[in-house]
Backbone:
């Protein structure tokens, strides 16, 4: 099974992808997480992308497509959940090419839609632990003791690109470069829109239902083909 998670920054893609990947045994590929790891480890890639990431712009397509190609190459079997890729139409084309070379196909694109005011509120309340990467959110998901991680007592930080001025640029990047993917996948009948301005548990439920429907649709199509 191949799933793509689509949604603006702050729509909850990361949280939901982690939950669903665990529940369904899918491999979770987050390009944002991969890039942040490169930056943290000070690799050549990390040095190349750090300032672009801080500014909220997209890093070059070639670099990100190569990263995804390497992951697909090393995939033995099982499903995958793509989180943060593709981010524009050219990346979507490249993904189609890579998949057709490997006999893979995108099954569903789960689009988490949230109003812009709510996105800004969520991003400005977002904190993470630099040691274990646990995420927190004020006021929805607070640490037990203010400002420190429940798991290891580490001081919580904000992502540099969650500063308000950068958040506005990231939302603009989403609007101009990423949102055309909504139509791209809608036209292919693969997009399922999930209103994600509700409690995260309810969002997970709705996403699971959309995924379970994939099996139903396949059965129906198989039945039609036989008839
Ligand atoms: P995210 O964690 O998905 O919000 O990504 C954080 C940052 O990583 C983005 O603002 C971009 O600078 C970069 N990034 C992540 N995924 C991509 C992608 N598919 N294409 C280009 N840049 C990306």
Residues:
């Amino acid at each position: 099974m191949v799933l793509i998670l689509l949604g603006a920054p702050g729509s909850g893609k990361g949280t939901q992808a982690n939950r669903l990947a665990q529940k369904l045994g899918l491999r979770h590929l987050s390009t944002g997480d991969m890039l942040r790891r490169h930056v943290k480890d000070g690799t050549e890639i990390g040095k190349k992308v750090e300032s672009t990431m801080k500014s909220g712009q997209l890093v070059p397509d070639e670099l990100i497509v190569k990263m995804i190609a390497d992951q697909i190459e090393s995939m033995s079997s099982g499903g995958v959940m793509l989180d943060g890729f593709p981010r524009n139409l050219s990346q979507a084309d490249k993904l189609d090419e890579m998949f057709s070379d490997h006999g893979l196909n995108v099954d569903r694109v789960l689009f988490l839609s949230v109003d812009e005011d709510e996105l800004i509120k969520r991003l400005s309340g977002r904190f993470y632990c630099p040691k274990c990467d646990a995420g927190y959110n004020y006021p929805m998901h607070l640490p037990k003791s203010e400002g420190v991680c429940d798991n290891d007592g580490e001081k919580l930080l904000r992502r540099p690109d969650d500063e308000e001025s950068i958040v506005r640029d990231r939302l603009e990047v989403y609007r101009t470069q990423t949102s055309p993917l909504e139509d791209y996948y809608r036209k292919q009948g693969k997009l399922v829109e999930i209103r994600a301005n509700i409690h995260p548990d309810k969002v997970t439920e709705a996403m699971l239902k959309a995924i379970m429907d994939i099996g139903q649709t396949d059965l129906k199509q198989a039945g039609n083909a036989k008839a």
Remarks:
- Confidence is low (pLDDT under 50) at residues 221-227.
